[in-house]
Automatic annotation (TrEMBL), chain A:
UniProt-listed InterPro entries: CO_DH_flav_C, CO_DH_flav_C_dom_sf, Diverse_Substr_Oxidored, FAD-bd_PCMH, FAD-bd_PCMH-like_sf, FAD-bd_PCMH_sub1, FAD-bd_PCMH_sub2, Mopterin_DH_FAD-bd
Keyword Lipid biosynthesis: no
Domain of life: Bacteria
Domain (FAD-binding PCMH-type) ranges: 1-177
Protein's organism: Geodermatophilus ruber
Keyword Cell inner membrane carried by entry: no
GO molecular function, one term: FAD binding
Name the record gives this protein: Carbon-monoxide dehydrogenase medium subunit
PROSITE patterns linked: FAD_PCMH
TrEMBL record, chain B:
The protein's annotated pathway: Alkaloid degradation; nicotine degradation
Top-level taxon of origin: Bacteria
The entry's keywords: 2Fe-2S, Iron, Iron-sulfur, Metal-binding, Oxidoreductase
Molecular functions (GO terms): 2 iron, 2 sulfur cluster binding; metal ion binding; oxidoreductase activity
Ranges of compositional bias, category Basic and acidic residues: 180-191
Domain 2Fe-2S ferredoxin-type: 22-98
Segments for region (Disordered): 1-20, 175-204
This protein's name: Carbon-monoxide dehydrogenase small subunit
Parts of the chain that traverse the membrane: none
Species, as recorded: Geodermatophilus ruber
Family matches, as InterPro entries: 2Fe-2S-bd, 2Fe-2S-bd_dom_sf, 2Fe-2S_ferredoxin-like_sf, 2Fe-2S_ferredoxin-type, 2Fe2S_fd_BS, Beta-grasp_dom_sf, Diverse_Oxidoreductases
Length: 277, 204
């Protein structure tokens, strides 16, 4: 039972939503799927007097065009897994959504945008979005703006969202890039300890690590891939030196995360390159 | 001895603040219902409290155990993760709505019963709905498919072995009685069961 008084709002337009967020500034949260927010409110870790539900805005479409994929704010992991068009146009999102735990019930409820906004280091979506150059389409009291996922994360649990702003959609540019993903976790039902999105496009090679740092860690390794596969030993060194302050939480201490980060990065490239790790 | 005077009760503020609430409409196991709720109530609290359907359980209030599972507009959800106000207008099927009107067990329930798949039964909403969700999408799942589909539901009594056996047995029963739903198999593209897998990569 949420013990503090709470008022529920279901605005009909993005402007109305922003106006409510501004009016109740400091005492309000956006309700996406609710899988993070509601348990926190129930435990009294988050107490706000107002919730702004995005349900009245629709926002559950996946739109695939020739040059991009648009995933609206209320699209769930299950929506992603069931969309044939998205599977072709943005296979990496499907790959990542596939490994989200908690069962079909969670995948029917949790949204990609919610996970992106929660900005929890030990989760899949933030670093995966940074890794594929996603862009967040925001709506706020001053209208719309776009922010690259790479610029969205300020610190653990902190984004550049301003008062009154929320995510309307996530867009992913369609490219010929190839990607690979690797995630390390304690058991089938637990949260990630380290994730890596490997990506190659033309001459460039990058890896974006998640869960190992307060914010997603994007590392350019193009110079390590000049003749064929990415050099694994150099990759491990590069990743280690990019990680001076690894993330610590109840699942794993930072030094463990630092130790495995290079291996996780290598495995993501192995998936991409189709060679055994 | 001095007797202390009972302090007078604090005076109520001029305007007593009303607890934010509303009336919502739901279709519950096929019947239309109107319920008065508080805005802060979770769906599981309304289902158990106002609607009195206590087959839906609360184990963790954290999305982990699955005991609060029900169907909202055809999709299985953990009802501790749904705000009741947000479900206004929805169609719900709770565990009470799964069997026949006369209390007869459906094939999956009967398979669970025959295979000793449960002891206390607290986890049944999650396991029965997750099994049904899988079998509606895939009438011939492998053991790994079943295990993947049941992830997200915790059972503290059984150790899962008989749960998996029961789900496979239920699939077999559905195939023999011809109640298996073949729709999704004939359609091309990702199947609903693809959203259940966990350990192996996505199907090509
Ligand atoms: C049992 C369980 C297992 C899980 N397993 C995994 C896992 O394996 N990997 C993983 O990464 N995550 C996992 N999660 C977390 C899950 O991914 C996230 O809970 C989910 O995607 C968050 O989305 P939501 O829509 O439910 O967010 P909500 O709970 O609705 O919101 C989360 C936060 O973001 C804000 N917010 C939501 N939407 C917006 C928006 N559009 N604009 C601005 N702010 C917004 C909210 O105000 C809140 O602060 C798990 C959760 C549970 C309960
Ligand atoms: S009570 Fe809802 S998942 Fe445990
Ligand atoms: S039978 Fe008791 S929790 Fe599953």
């Amino acid at each position: 039972m949420i013990r503090t008084p709470l008022r529920y709002h279901r605005p009909r337009t993005p402007d109305e939503a922003s106006a409510l967020l501004v009016e109740h500034r400091g005492d309000v949260a956006v309700l996406g799927g609710g899988t993070q927010l509601l348990p926190q409110m129930n435990r009294d870790q988050v107490h706000v007097g107002h919730l702004v539900d995005l349900r009245g805005l629709g926002l559950r479409r996946i739109e695939v065009t020739d040059d991009q994929v648009v995933v609206e704010a209320l699209v769930t992991y299950a929506d992603v897994l069931l969309s044939r068009d998205l599977s072709r146009a943005a296979p990496h999102l499907r790959r990542v959504a596939h490994g989200v735990t908690g069962g079909r019930q969670i995948r029917n409820t949790g949204t990609l945008a919610g996970s992106a906004c929660f900005a929890m280091p030990g989760s899949d979506m933030p670093a995966a979005l940074v890794g594929i150059d996603a862009i967040l389409r925001l709506h706020g009291p001053d209208g719309a703006r776009e922010v690259r996922a790479a610029d969205f994360y300020v610190d653990a649990f902190t984004t550049v969202l301003r008062p009154g702003e929320f995510v309307l959609a996530i867009t992913i540019p369609r490219t010929a890039a190839r990607t690979g993903y690797c995630k390390v976790k304690h058991s089938s039902g637990s949260w990630p300890i380290a994730t890596a999105t490997a990506r190659r496009l033309d001459g460039s090679a990058t890896v974006t690590l998640g869960s190992v740092h307060a914010t997603p860690l994007h590392v350019d390794v193009s110079d390590l891939a000049s003749n064929g596969p990415v050099d694994r030993a150099a990759l491990a060194d590069r990743v280690r030196s990019a990680l001076p302050a690894p993330w610590t939480d109840v699942l794993a201490p930072g030094d463990y995360r630092a130790r495995i980060a290079g291996v996780v990065a290598a495995r993501a490239f192995s998936e991409l390159e189709g060679v055994p790790a | 001895m001095t007797i202390q005077e009972t302090p007078s009760p604090p005076s109520l503020p001029e305007e007593v603040e009303e607890v934010p609430g509303r009336e919502i409409t739901l279709t519950v196991n096929g019947r239309p219902r109107r319920v008065r709720i508080e805005d802060r109530q979770l769906l599981v609290e309304v289902v158990r409290g106002q609607l009195g359907l206590i087959g839906t359980k609360v184990g963790c209030y954290n999305g982990d155990c699955g005991a609060c599972t029900l169907q909202v507009d055809g999709e299985i959800r953990k009802s501790c993760l749904v705000l009741a106000a947000s479900a206004d207008g929805a169609e719900l099927t709770t565990i009470e709505g799964v069997g026949g009107p006369d209390g007869a067990l459906d094939e999956i329930q009967q398979a669970f019963w025959d295979n000793d798949a449960f002891q206390c039964g607290f986890c049944l909403p999650g396991h029965l709905f997750a099994t049904r969700d899988l079998l509606d999408a895939d009438d011939d799942p492998s053991e790994q498919d079943v295990r993947d589909a049941l992830v997200g539901n915790l059972c503290r009594c059984t150790g899962y072995v008989n749960l998996v056996k029961a789900a496979l047995d239920a699939a077999q029963r559905r195939r023999t009685t011809g109640t298996a739903d073949r729709r999704s198999i004939e359609e091309e593209g990702p199947r609903p069961a693809d959203a259940c897998t966990l350990h192996r990569g996505p199907r090509p």
